[in-house]
Protein 1
Amino acid sequence: MLAIGMAAWVLRYLFFAYGNGTSNYWMLLAGIVLHGVCYDFFFVTGQIYTDNLAGERFKSSAQGFITLATYGVGMLIGTLLSGNIFDRYALAGGTHDWRMIWLIPAGIAAVVLGLFLLLFQERVGAPTPAEATVPYSEASAVAPG
């Protein structure tokens, strides 16, 4: 599901890159429609996966961390990059090369999708309390208290 969401981001950005207000208007509409698929299949599925993997004990911390990573750090990096890309592809007369502006995030999303497909290994569920418990002697050499 996460990969479907990432692929939808690539497709969405490609629709915006090649869509226009005349002959390819349908691409702009399709890109807008894909927003729901992108959001649900990536962000919501990621939240659900994290929730299931973390288990009850670490659920809140895991949700906070994934929110920081996606809505905090991820959007900060996106904001910093997008301003530079927007400025780089400014054309004479105050217009912009929108095709290149949209192809760059499409390429970035495609690379992220490729890395995800190559490196992600699914883990199912959080460890049971017995599996998660580390004997004191193995966890630390310092006595509590």
Protein 2
Amino acid sequence: MRSSSAVMRISIGWSKTRRNDALIGTFPSDGDINFVTQFARPLPQQVMAEVLGFPDTDIPQLAAWDEAQVMPFVYGEGHLNRLTDKQLAAQFAQLEGFKEYVQEIVSCKRRTPAEDMISFLTQVKYSALDRKLSDLEINGIAYAMVLGGLETTQYALDQQAQLIC
């Protein structure tokens, strides 16, 4: 019997290949493409949603939450990337929405686990403290995975494409 981590690695590999092929299949046979909007951005969004156990239909909202996470680095002013009070309020409202969304997913996955990361996190025992992870801890992991998985991958793909061109 395979461990759940081995199954997840196999599933992620298959997911990336399937999603790569689907996105590339949308490219025109001749002409230019916008690599970021047509590949580098949607690929990590789709894979991360699947890995975490979020429905594909929620990807546009996940993209908005991802943008809220990096808002200071995109729209912030000065060397400290400061947001205006209005921008900060908008960012906090978006991130509160993400927290509530993940909390709902965690509650659902605790009741009915599936083959995804959130389900795994709801079932795993944190051996250092001899307990399962709390909902807040799972929420923090999901937050970090979305931030690291989307933005980092998007920019890495974009940079690699620029090096090739």
Protein 3
Amino acid sequence: MAGPNNRIGRINDDIQLVLSELLRQIKDPRIADLQMISITRVDTTGDLRCAKVYLSIYGEFDEKQLKKGLKSSAGWLRRELGARLSIRYVPELIFEIDYGLEYGAHINSLLSKIIKDEAETESEEISDEGDNG
């Protein structure tokens, strides 16, 4: 028999899937004008009263305006979630910006720079040895 954590996991996945579709339908310019917005994960409490929705956004955006837009759309999103999912309680939605992908890209660029610098240093050392020899 599946435990309650498995049920919460399925609900998190369902909420993520439905909200991904719904975010594209929002007319609020604070949200609709974004180039690309995706939900990286959803964490719902065990009593299904609250769900943290983590968003990843590509491109420039005003975080304060985005959060205001999401907060104003939260009621509609919650109502649509209730209509599409068969769960007793539709959780309150709390939106958080997930900077994980941005941070990962930054680390990747730093590593690429280090590798490039090391390759240049090695090629300079090899050419110096050839000139001295």
